[in-house]
């Protein structure tokens, strides 16, 4: 088990990495609500989250050409930013979204996506401003509330963050992405048991994806139950996706030499 001080520092970096990834990935969902033009966005042969580095690079080149032809199109711009973010090019994704926001200053979907891109780039105050401007009090959007919560968590306001998550759950009960964010909020504060409770519930919900499962695997791994964490990371996936999840799990836990510590603890527990 990680020592409390190490665990706290590691948890903060871990939460930031996972939440920034989640915020960035959600740009793709925003793009689906944009002003789509038939055939305007190049079709992908698989979801972005299941692409490897080479496939993401190819997708970025393909969508980038469409963006160059029509940089004012919000749907293309948001999709391009999503592909760039998935490929680790967050700064470029933010630059793209800045241009899209300039050309579409009153589009709520664009403002929301821009806010998420700002958060992915660590510009949390600006991100909150953009997301709150996109929100409508009379018909609040649960995705914006959840994104706002993730930003507040990264700004060190867990109480405010959890308030937003619970408001989002009032609108969209049992939504796995919200439950996952709520679980990661407790991880940030070092409360791994509560984090696991929310994440275990999230995994059981219809629509829970690989990212939610990864978060649960990380929380279980941080508690020293490495074998169980690896099984969770690999469950119900293709061999390629399972290996990618396990590799991700290894990379996150190894940041504090946690990998060997957890393997040793797991070995002791099974003897």
Structural features, described:
Pfam families: TPR_16, TPR_19. It comes from Hoeflea phototrophica (strain DSM 17068 / NCIMB 14078 / DFL-43). With 271 residues, the protein is mainly alpha-helical. Among the domains are: 51-138, Tetratricopeptide repeat domain (Serine Threonine Protein Phosphatase 5, Tetratricopeptide repeat), CATH 1.25.40; 157-245, Serine Threonine Protein Phosphatase 5, Tetratricopeptide repeat (Alpha Horseshoe), CATH 1.25.40. 73% of the residues lie in helices and 0% in strands. The longest helix is centred in the N-terminal third of the chain and has 28 residues, at 4-31.
Which strand-content bin applies to the residues?
A: under 5%
Order of H and E elements: HHHHHHHHHHHHHH
Q: Could you say what the CATH architecture of one domain is? A: Alpha Horseshoe
What oligomeric state do the depicted chains represent?
single chain
How does the major sheet shape up? none
Q: How would you classify the helix and strand content by structural class?
A: mainly alpha
- As residue ranges, the low-confidence spans are 1-8, 20-39
Counting DSSP E segments of at least 2 residues, the number of strands comes to: 0
Q: Percentage of helical residues?
A: over 70%
Note the total helix count.
Answer: 14
Question: What number is the mean pLDDT?
Answer: 79
Layout of helices and strands, plus pairs?
Layout (H helix, E strand, L loop, with lengths): L3 H28 L21 H17 L4 H13 L3 H14 L4 H13 L3 H11 L7 H13 L3 H14 L4 H13 L3 H12 L6 H13 L3 H9 L4 H15 L4 H13 L1
InterPro entries: CellSynth/LPSAsmb/PSIAsmb (IPR051012), TPR-like_helical_dom_sf (IPR011990), TPR_rpt (IPR019734), UCP035836 (IPR014596)
Protein name: Flp pilus assembly protein TadD
Keywords: Repeat, Signal, TPR repeat
């Amino acid at each position: 088990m990680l020592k409390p001080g190490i665990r706290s520092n590691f948890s903060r970096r871990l939460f930031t990495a996972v939440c920034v990834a989640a915020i960035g990935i959600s740009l793709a969902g925003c793009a689906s609500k944009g002003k789509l033009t038939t055939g305007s966005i190049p079709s992908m042969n698989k979801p972005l989250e299941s692409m490897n580095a080479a496939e993401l690079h190819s997708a970025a080149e393909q969508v980038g050409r469409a963006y160059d032809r029509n940089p004012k199109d919000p749907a293309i711009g948001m999709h391009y930013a999503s592909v760039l973010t998935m490929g680790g090019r967050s700064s470029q994704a933010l630059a793209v979204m800045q241009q899209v926001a300039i050309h579409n200053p009153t589009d709520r979907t664009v403002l929301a996506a821009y806010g998420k891109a700002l958060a992915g780039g660590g510009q949390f105050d600006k991100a909150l401003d953009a997301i709150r401007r996109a929100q409508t009090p009379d018909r609040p959007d649960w995705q914006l509330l959840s994104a706002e919560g993730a930003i507040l968590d990264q700004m060190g306001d867990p109480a405010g963050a959890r308030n937003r998550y619970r408001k989002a759950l009032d609108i969209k009960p049992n939504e796995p992405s919200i439950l996952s964010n709520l679980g990661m909020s407790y991880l940030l504060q070092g409360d791994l048991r509560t984090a696991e409770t929310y994440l275990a519930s999230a995994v059981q919900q219809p629509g829970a994806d690989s990212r939610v499962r990864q978060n649960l695997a990380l929380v279980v791994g941080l508690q020293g139950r490495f074998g169980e964490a690896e099984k969770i990371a690999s469950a119900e996936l293709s061999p390629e996706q399972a290996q990618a999840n396990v590799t991700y799990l290894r990379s996150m836990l190894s940041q504090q030499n946690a990998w060997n510590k957890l393997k040793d603890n797991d070995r002791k527990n099974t003897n």
